[in-house]
Specification:
Distance between the termini: 18 Å
Radius of gyration: 18 Å
Helix content: 40-55%
CATH topology: TIM Barrel
Order of helices and strands: EHHEHEHEHHEHEHEHEHHH
Shape: globular
CATH superfamily: Aldolase class I
Strand order of the largest sheet: 1-8-7-6-5-4-3-2
Number of domains: 1
CATH architecture: Alpha-Beta Barrel
Structural class: alpha/beta
Length: 325
C-alpha cells in the first residue's frame, strides 16, 4: 500500500459507508491510445506501465489483439503483455475482439482477456460487425479454447452501450441483463458493464447495477464510465453505493468511442483516485506519482485532447495527511 492510501479499520466498508477498498483498472494504453492519432513508442508504453505499477496500480489493460492495419496504435500489444507479466503482482489484461485475438492472449499468458459485446444491436454491427448474440457464440468458442489450452487466463464479458446508444437510441435494461446472463452461460468467468457513449446518470447506474449484482453476484466485476457529459465520477459513486469496487479509467481521461460524437473520453484515472481516496476508499495509488506520470504521458502526445481537473489545481491543502500535497 502506498503512502497516499487512506487506511481504515478492518471490515467491508469505510467510515463513510462505502466499500473500504476499490481497484482502478488502467485502460489508457488500450481505450485511450486507440482513440488518438499519435503513435506512442513501445519503449514509452513500457515506461507508462512501469510508472503506473510503481504508483500503485495493480491492474492494467495493456492493449488489444486486433489487426495492426485497423489499429496501428496497438500493434505492439504482445510486447507490452510480455513486459507487464514480468512485473510482480501486476495483473495484465487485454481486449480481444474474437477467437483469434483470444488465442493470442492465451499464448501470451494474459491474466485476463475481455470480450466486448454491445447491447445495442446497431452499435454491435457498426463496431464489431456481429450481432450481440453472435458475440455470445464467440464467447463459447473462446471459453472452449481457453479450457482446451489448460490456460489460467480469466475471461470477462464486457457489455457496452448499457445505458443507451448514439446510433440506436434506447437500449432496454432487459436486453442488457439478458446478454449479461448469456455471456455467463456461455462461459465468461465474470462480466462488466460500460457506459460506452456517456448516457448514464447516477440514478440509472444505481438501478442497473443493483440488478446486475442480483444476477451475477461476485461475478459482476467492473464499471466502465465515459465522461462525455461530465458524470463519470458521479456514476462511479452511485456504483460504489451498491457495492461495486472495480472501475476502469484512463490517465488524463484520454479515449472515447468513434460512434459517440462529442465524446470527451474516459473517467480520468487521477481524478477518480482522488475522489475515491477523499471519500475514504483506499486504492493503493500514490496520487502525486500518478500526476507526474500524467504530465509525462501528455508530453508524448502533443496536440491530442486530454481531460481531467486535478492536474490543474493539485491536491487541496486540506486533504488528509495520507494524501501527499
Amino acid at each position: 500500500m502506498s503512502s497516499s492510501s487512506i487506511s481504515h479499520a478492518a471490515g467491508a466498508h469505510s467510515l463513510t459507508g462505502l466499500p473500504a477498498q476499490a481497484v482502478i483498472r488502467e485502460v489508457g494504453l488500450r481505450d485511450g491510445l486507440q482513440s488518438i492519432q499519435t503513435l506512442v513508442s513501445t519503449a514509452r508504453k513500457c515506461e507508462w506501465i512501469a510508472d503506473a505499477f510503481a504508483a500503485g496500480q495493480c491492474e492494467i489493460e495493456v492493449g488489444s489483439f486486433v489487426p495492426p492495419r485497423l489499429l496501428p496504435q496497438l500493434a505492439d500489444t504482445a510486447e507490452l503483455l510480455a513486459f507487464a507479466r514480468a512485473l510482480p503482482a501486476l495483473k495484465a489484461s487485454v481486449l480481444v475482439p474474437n477467437l483469434k485475438g483470444a488465442e493470442r492472449a492465451i499464448e501470451g499468458g494474459a491474466h485476463l482477456m475481455i470480450l466486448p459485446l454491445s447491447a445495442s444491436h446497431a452499435h454491435s454491427l457498426a463496431n464489431l460487425r456481429k450481432t450481440p448474440d453472435e458475440v455470445v457464440d464467440e464467447m463459447k468458442r473462446i471459453r472452449a479454447a481457453r479450457d482446451a489450452a489448460g490456460s489460467a487466463t480469466l475471461i470477462e464479458g464486457g457489455v457496452g452501450t448499457a445505458f443507451g446508444c448514439t446510433i440506436q437510441g434506447e437500449v432496454k435494461t432487459s436486453e442488457v441483463l439478458r446478454l449479461m446472463q448469456a455471456l455467463l452461460d456461455a462461459g465468461a468467468d465474470r462480466v462488466s458493464l460500460a457506459d460506452t457513449v456517456g448516457y448514464a446518470d447516477p440514478h440509472s447506474v444505481r438501478q442497473l447495477f443493483e440488478q446486475a449484482l442480483h444476477i451475477a453476484g461476485d461475478r459482476f466485476c467492473c464499471g466502465h464510465f465515459h465522461d462525455t457529459r461530465g458524470l463519470a465520477l458521479a456514476n462511479v459513486y452511485a456504483a460504489l453505493e451498491v457495492g461495486v469496487t472495480r472501475f476502469d479509467a484512463s490517465l488524463a481521461g484520454i479515449g472515447g468511442c468513434p460512434h459517440a460524437p462529442g465524446a470527451s473520453g474516459n473517467a480520468a484515472t487521477e481524478d477518480l483516485a482522488f475522489m475515491l481516496q477523499a471519500c475514504g476508499v483506499s486504492t493503493g495509488v500514490d496520487i502525486q506519482q500518478l500526476l507526474a506520470l500524467r504530465a509525462k504521458v501528455v508530453s508524448w502526445m502533443p496536440g491530442e485532447p486530454t481531460h481531467g481537473a486535478l492536474w490543474r489545481a493539485g491536491l487541496p491543502r486540506t486533504a488528509p495527511a495520507a494524501l501527499p500535497h
